[in-house]
Amino acid sequence: MNNTLKQIFRFIIVGGIATVIDFALLYIFKEFLNFNIILSNTLAFTISVIYNYIASIKWVFDVSENRNYKIQFIIFIILSILGLIINSSILYVFSKFLGIYYLLSKVLATIVVMIYNFITRKMFLEKK
C-alpha cells in the first residue's frame, strides 16, 4: 500500500504539471490562435500526454525494463485517446450545451480523466 500512495503522490505531481501544460496550451490555441475549442483541446491534450508518458514511465509507475517501449507507448496512446474522447466530450457538453465557461468545463473534465488515467495506467503499464 505504501508504494501505491507514493505513486499517487508522484502521479499528482506529474499530472499537475501536465494539467498546467494542457490548460496553458488550450488557452493559447483558443484565445490567441483562434482555433475552435475541440482542435485547441486536442492539440493541448496531445502535447501534455507526451510529457505525461515520459514522466510516468520514468518516475511514477514501476515499469519493467524488459517490456517493449513501443508496445508500452502504443498502450499509453490508446488509453490517452480514450481519455481525450472522455475529456473532449465532457468539455463539449458542459461548454456548448450547459453554457459553462470552457476553462471551468475543462477543470471538471480533467478531474474525471485524472481518475481514469491513474487506474488504467496502473493496470496496463506496471509490471505484474
Task: Provide tags for this entry.
single chain; 128 residues; mainly alpha; elongated
Bin the strand percentage: under 5%
Separation of the first and last Cα atoms: 15 Å
Order of helices and strands: HHHH
* Low-confidence segments: none
Mean pLDDT: 88
Rg from Cα: 15 Å
- Count, helices: 4
Q: What would you call the structural class?
A: mainly alpha
**Number of domains as seen in the coordinates:** 1
- Number of separate strands: 0
- Principal-axis shape equals elongated
Residue share in helices? over 70%
Describe the model:
By secondary structure, the chain is mainly α. The protein has one domain. It is 84% helix and 0% strand. The protein contains four helices and no strands. Helix 1 packs antiparallel against helix 2, helix 1 packs antiparallel against helix 4 and helix 2 packs antiparallel against helix 3. The longest helix has 31 residues. The two termini are 15 Å apart. The model has no long low-confidence stretch (mean pLDDT 88).
